[in-house]
Amino acid sequence: MRTLSLLTAGLCLGLNAWAAAPDANEPVQPIPPAEVADPAKVELGKQLFFDPRLSKSGFISCNSCHNLSMGGSDNLPTSIGHNWQKGPINAPTVLNSSMNLAQFWDGRAADLKEQAAGPIANQKEMASNHVLAIDVLRSIPQYRESFKQVYKIDQITLDAVTDAIAEFEKTLVTPNSRFDRWLKGDEKAITQAELEGYQLFKSIGCVACHNGAALGGNSFQKMGLVEPYKTDNPAEGVAGLTGKDVDRFMFKVPTLRNVELTYPYFHDGAYWDLDDAVDVMARLQLGRQLSKEDIGKVTAFLKTLTGDQPSFSVPILPPSTPQTPIPTPFN
Ligand code: HEC
Ligand code: HEC
User: Fold this and answer.
1) Which residues contact 173 (CB under 8 A, 6 or more apart)?
2) Which of 40, 157, 288, 307 is the most core-located residue (most Cβ within 10 A)?
3) Where along this sequence does the record place binding of heme c 1 (predicted)?
4) Residues at CB less than 6 angstroms from ligand 1
5) Residue 322, domain member (yes or no)
């Protein structure tokens, strides 16, 4: 009898869930499509994003670590940089990064433009320096011409380079996921199990940190709120910047948009399986042990967050000239 009533209760819950349509106060909003104010800027930024000549080796572009064929990430625990150097931290996706309140895991860059100057001169990433990278661009007539047209400048500057890259990145949004279609009223866009996953996501409290259009990116939170996170990675989060103990292990909450594509997970890239990442989150952030079934539902929901990926023709880069500094991949 007891089992039966539990069962009926479960069924009723299920039925209610099926009936549940989004209400006006959902803590998650659909992603708006990109608005392109200046297509020429975006096109130039796209070229720069794909141009490996911004690196010392002539081999590493932004797209090497933020591969737009792989959810804007490299699917590695930590990136491989210049001279096969092991990166210190997992590369976050560039998709929807314009929605972040700040850039990097610790938020040390205010916006995309400020961020873009970082990797070019980072000795472990692209290992160039800004002077060299700008010299390379200045030696290429087609780039000179493009910057002249788009930015009305005679000399290419770092400011214009990072601006163009940022303008391109702002177009890397992923609207129209199945979940967004559900939010907009298409009740058939997600399944019963996926809907139950969303309801769990809200009721157990994931949504406290993963909310807004990007389901993250809008706050810094402690990793290991209830139970400490064990890792060999030395990153300390915001404390690395402020030196304050309260900021230890405070990281920018990652977006969960396209999370099915951006494995492995967490700042150390230690978890490859989304089910495991959900289990870790429930235990460490909320003190909850979820059943295998519930983990499956939450994961099923998370997979409905994969949206339309940016799609465009691969940019054809202008050729180098005899004046272009030659790449030095091996020193
Ligand atoms: C060698 C790999 C590598 C290359 C090349 C690289 N990045 Fe990154 N990128 C990373 C890593 C790793 C991080 C995270 C670093 C951190 O938070 O400390 C990151 C962070 C970012 C972020 C912040 C995302 C967020 O959610 O905080 C953006 C945006 C970004 N990179 C764009 C670029 C652009 C534009 C270029 C080219 C100019 C570039 N990256 C080149 C590895 C790379
Ligand atoms: C107290 C805030 C908080 C809560 C609650 C929370 N998260 Fe997180 N979440 C974070 C932070 C911070 C990170 C990044 C941690 C790190 O990388 O060290 C993260 C990372 C993740 C990641 C990995 C994303 C990636 O790209 O690496 C997933 C998946 C995730 N959370 C899902 C969930 C789910 C599901 C729940 C509920 C069971 C949840 N989170 C609850 C703050 C939170």
Assistant:
1) 31, 32, 33, 34, 95, 96, 98, 99, 307, 310
2) 307
3) 62, 65-66, 82
4) 60, 62, 64-66, 79, 81, 87, 89, 91-92, 94, 97, 100, 103-105, 112, 115-116, 119-120, 125-126, 165
5) no
